[in-house]
Amino acid sequence: xxxxxxxxxxxxLCLLMIHLLECFLIFGQLKPQPxxxxxxxxxxxxxGDAALEHGDDSRSAALELSRAxxxxxxxxxxxxxSVATNGIIAVNEPSNEEKxxxxxxxxxxxxxxxxxxxxxxxxxxxxxxxxxxxxxVLKLASDYIKRGFPETTFEPSSVVIVTWKxxxxxxxxxxxxxxxxxxxxxxxxxxxxxxxxxxxxLYPEDSLQFYSTYSKNDDGKIPAMVGFSxxxxxxxxxxxxxxxxxxxxxxxxxxxxxxxxxxxxxGVWVFEIGSSSDSIVPAKISNVLESVESSxxxxxxxxxxxxxxxxxxxxxxxxxxxxxxxxxAPPRQFPAQQFPPQEPQVIDVEEFDETGIVFRYHTDxxxxxxxxxxxxxxxxxxxxxxxxxxxxxxxxxxxxxxQCVAEGSPQRVNGKVKGxxxxxxxxxxxxxxxxxxxxxxxxxxxxAYTAISTIxxxxxxxxxxxxxxxxxxxxxxxxxxQGYKNGFSVTGGEFTRQTEVTFLGNNEKLVIKQKFxxxxxxxxxxxxxxxxxxxxxxxxxxxxHIEPYTELYHTSSSVITSSSTREYTVTEPERDGVASTxxxxxxxxxxxxxxxxxxxxxxxxxxxxxQLSVDSVFVLYNRDEQILRYAMxxxxxxxxxxxxxxxxxxxYTGTHNCDTNAICRxxxxxxxxxxxxxxxxGDGNVCYDVDECSEQPAVCGSNAVCNNQPGTYRxxxxxxxxxxxxxxxxxxxDQNSECSTHGCDIPQRAQCxxxxxxxxxxxxxPGFSGDGRACEDxxxxxxxxxxxxxxxxxTPGSFSCQCKAGYRGDGFQCVLGGVEKTxxxxxxxxxxxxxxxxxxxxxxxxxFVPQCDxxxxxxxxxxxxxxGYCWCVDRDGxxxxxxxxGPGVQPPCLSTAAPPVAIGPSVRxxxxxxxxxxHLLFAQSGKIExxxxxxxxxxxNGAKALLHIPDKVIIGVAYDCMxxxxxxxxxxxxxxxxxxxxxxxxxxxxxxxxxSPEGIAVxxxxxxxxxxxxxxxxxxxxxxxxxQRRILFDTGLVNPRAIVVDPVRGNLYWxxxxxxxxxxxxxYMDGTNRKILVKDDLGLPNGLTFDPYSSMLCWVDAxxxxxxCMNPNQFGRRKIVEGIQYPFSVTSYxxxxxxxxxxxxxxxxxxxxxxxxxxxxxxxxxxxxxGITTAFAQCPGGHNYCSVNNGGCTHLCLATPGGRTCxxxxxxxxxxxxxxN
Length: 1221
Prior knowledge:
Helix content is 7%, strand content 40%. The protein is mainly beta. It has an eleven-stranded mixed β-barrel. Strands 1, 6, 7, 8, 9, 10, 17 and 18 form an eight-stranded antiparallel sheet that branches. Strands 2-3-4-5-13-16 form a six-stranded antiparallel sheet. The two termini are 61 Å apart.
């Protein structure tokens, strides 16, 4: 059984991927979903429906009801069915759409399954409606209602059915072209009896293709609204708004309506809308999580609509269970941490009074960087002042100098919680200790997720209002507005916090003490928490809602204080169909004590009073797992009433689209740009980890192994060696070494060298000088190490030289004359000069600026910064036909530029012999790796590189099970090569007349290879040795990629991810009988596989984010999983499908029988994974007519169903080749 810490860590990793369903599937929380059944009740003219007149703001005449509809406790006798801005059923005559677009509640009263600006002009969809009392329809409606309310005895006598069928969004001139073809379908069912009424909202699978529409009032895009609104009451001089309930009002919530439910069936939402009560009561079925799936958003966590917390006027509760880390097993045992005052220091002495405030005084001993440099972070510089020294983080890092973290990088916080808390009037306290706390922070969004495990149910629900237990972590990493600092920038994550909470009403008090101890050896912040006191009881099963709030933080002399009063709303579990709510409040007083540097006056420039703004607050307790979860978004800046718009830059609100490993840099107004964090490389929208190990082969020294990690790297000594305290130099292990207790300077500046017996010496590392116990940086720039015509830049332990403008060279030697620019760099320079602005976003709309990589090559994906359109380019920067995508969507472009070969010992490109058994082979840029399979499981500890070709870009991989050979395509050459898995050097078999060879397949029976070329737009075949080439297709192809064969039946299959018309095609292996197999509901079909045992054809689509399968000889297809991230290639073995994912940098295993992801493998080196194939231990059974004696053909033998065709190569002339069928 996994430990609690392991489970929680896994959950946090799931949060990085932003795929909620995958996280649940890993832990078996979801059951396999059957193929979706039709949700909608019968509708259309054939069922007696009236059709609404086509138009932009059409509405029906009043629909007189045979049975009154009860709505908010009032009987309604007639309804107005509206479309256009609508998707609503109006209780009274609706006003013109301009008056209520984007407004909720609406004055006329409405039931809104999807209120938005819809348009059925020119036949773009239909709206059908009728009242029905047939027994069949009443039975269908009753079944839905009883799914959500199992205990009800309700039997409808009349049903109103309104269906919006394939309706379009309103499109003004010049607006978003990506919305033109999108259509929505949904249905509202209103069921009534004599005493009560229910509403059923139905959203079939994939029926919602857009989630917002453009405003006619120039307000931009307005999200759709789902909810209920009671009509206003008019008096002589004023109007009293009615109650209202909002179910979903943002794109993330709308997007998940068809995936979620409050009635246990995806896409079904049931509400009691009128009875003796005057409120809306939602269904609440405990197995709702079986229907929840996550939507794709590059790194981003979204919330799901869930009917849980309803007030009498407004409901905004949303369900976010899986956005939090979680655990089920008991925690590992660690020593309990206490909160004593810090031990007195020789130099700095701290005393605590009873409030926990630190008073500091200093001795007369002068402190300098020379003898205190080790107190600074390795990512900081130390500076001396007249009365002491201070540390400050270098560019690219955030913190107080003693502790620094890479700017924009996600952070993790680990710790322990203990407590002794009385709940309500219970005389016996709930006591716990050694409870795990884990937190994950998306730093560039200020979003903090915190989970506390093994909190007993008797306490868990009552702790829900105290979100600030984890909120302190949000303050530490809040998004900083210009000139303001979050908690980590001020404290470096080293501080104590004492909080007193007083609950208003019964005056219960709770004291919370927390100690943050900085960053541990794993790069994680550490925290210990202690709670003691009494809190009000919140009943089991209740939910708590906390509105966004602000809080003022006052800083003075190493102390930060704040106090506020906060309210929270509790919705108790339903009793007799009614859920009561009440509001609670408490006063919050906290004191944060930390050690600041008093010598650097510039550190005090930050305003003494700052405002923390907290929104999107979600709190949840899971009784099954005993996990308490908090999540919130945080930003810190000036005092504001929230009305000013000057600070709403996306960088400050966290609404930018930067990668989670990137920094958001604000510009003027709402402009911003993204910059990858230290240790990552990319355009900021997508950042890739820098592999320091391959780029700096000697970084760890001899007798050491370098392991790359996201944003950094680790050195590990080989067996028999241990670190000599510098983190790089490995020395022979000696049990008598005293270096473990040395007094040398920090490992980044000095090393301890064991000299025998109990003796050791401290020596400064190269680039530093001193006695080894205190080392100072050597300023090489003072020694004239650079050329006279170069600038010298000193860095800790090193330096760099850069030729001055007008000179070129490496800085050590500079000669007159500018550096020759690449074509991309020249075009970029010209474009920027003509734009004449610092920010590309400020250029004229038509201006396009080419994007180049660090070596001056064109990036494979080019995007227009103003229009958002993206396309692929070849190595010369020319656009590749059929790759242009709409705004916000990036096509799967391949880089033709091979990575630079690292300086150091060359790696022979020999294959490492493959062990017996079945393996997965996959490409990762310049190498092919293998993962052994044990049954259906990946044996990840046996994964190794099979072949290193560092100057190549390997895309497609195929395997010949007869000769045990691996074949691959390389687009940097370009070329097609092969190598024996018994060992030996690779051989290039084709290297002429290729453009961009990508997909490759092996017919092991006919002894042929097939491949696609996306630059030449053709599919070819050749013998296994590369001879006898023949073009099968060179028309009707735009971006052909994956290709697979079915040798036994003689069929060929391939994908074409043409943005205008993606498709999957098939033909016989001789090129005859070509036809389109799949063309609907495709986006970017990247990968394709044919399973010879089940005869299933499966594919992964980076556009629709789905993995699907079909039998090519039958109609219909089956969705295996959806919501995957950016799949590239796929293969099959046994019950599993394995696909490579560009976003996760991983091989992902999916059980296709039950549609569940069951494993994943991430190589040590994080970079894009390309083609994947299965290396079978034994060839699949079967034969074709080319298996024996080449089918009697003189040259190419190409199998067909039940036969074969003999074909000549394209370059053969003469009578020695005979073609025949």
